[in-house]
Write a structure and sequence with these properties.
Blueprint (H helix, E strand, L loop, with lengths): L12 E7 L10 H13 L19 H8 L8 E8 L3 E8 L4 H21 L11 E5 L2 H12 L3 H4 L3 H4 L5 H10 L6 H4 L11 H7 L3 H18 L3 H4 L5
Antiparallel strand pairs: 1-3, 1-4, 2-3
Helix pairs in contact: 1-3
Length: 241
């Protein structure tokens, strides 16, 4: 059955989920994760992207710094508010700022990252599983819930099926430390750590969450509740798993 999407309207916020076909791994190593970060930055441009920017390890090559400067005046398709890269899917929280911006970005990601992946791993065919999913964020409460939902996704790396089984005992502190340092998420930047600060607009979400400490408390309290009460129905309503 085709995925039904809401109208994609400028100024509105959407939770986007992109999945790999047949559960394939989108990211087989660290360089693949960096490539997606690169793609989300470079392709988020209504102007033609110059795809010579590369990350090597944790550093930006000197040659690429001048290329990166070309994007300071780019015309954004969307404002990326939050993201999380998982092994076989991606979560994005975006506000559309250009007509058709979300659709254009998704096409660029599919062609650009898909082409990179197929060439690197000598495969053919599409990489992503059909149409991306989009959920319209309609109010502040839903925005806060999605903030938590996206940034707690990496818990599944430590505890598979944790959303059904909860978090047990001393696992909680380990889980909190893990997600606060999970490299491929916007959560470290939300907490004031410089991870990928150029990719996301953290100020809006932090203001909506009433500051860094409140954002952190909101997530930690929910993880604590998961340990004691399991998932509440309000979170199940927006679950895309």
């Amino acid at each position: 059955m085709p995925v039904k999407r809401p109208p994609l309207i400028n100024g509105e916020i959407y939770h986007i989920v992109i999945r790999a076909i047949e559960g394939m791994k989108l990211f087989r190593n660290e360089k693949d994760y960096y490539r997606m970060i690169h793609s989300l930055f470079v392709f988020n441009n209504n102007n033609a992207a110059i795809s010579t920017y590369r990350r090597q390890g944790n550093e930006i090559p000197n040659r690429a710094r001048s290329v990166l400067a070309l994007f300071t005046k780019r015309k954004l398709l969307v404002e990326v508010l939050a993201f999380c890269l998982m092994s076989n899917h991606i979560h994005l929280l975006v506000r559309q700022v250009s007509d058709g911006g979300i659709s254009k970005l998704m096409r660029k990601i599919g062609a650009g990252y898909g082409g990179y992946y197929n060439k690197k791993y000598q495969r053919k065919g599409r990489l992503f599983d059909g149409r991306y999913r989009a959920i319209h964020i309609e109010n502040d409460n839903q925005l806060k819930i999605v903030f938590v939902y996206i940034h707690t996704n990496p818990v599944a790396i430590l505890i598979p099926n944790w959303k059904e089984g909860g978090i047990i005992g001393k696992e909680l502190n380990k889980v909190i430390e893990f997600i606060e340092n999970y490299r491929w998420s916007s959560y470290p930047d939300c907490l004031g750590k410089k991870n990928f600060p150029s990719l996301t607009s953290r100020e809006f979400l932090i203001n909506e969450m009433d500051g860094i400490k409140e954002a952190q408390r909101f997530i930690n309290d929910w993880l604590q509740a998961k340990r004691e009460l399991r998932e509440t129905s309000v979170f199940k309503e927006i679950s895309l798993e």
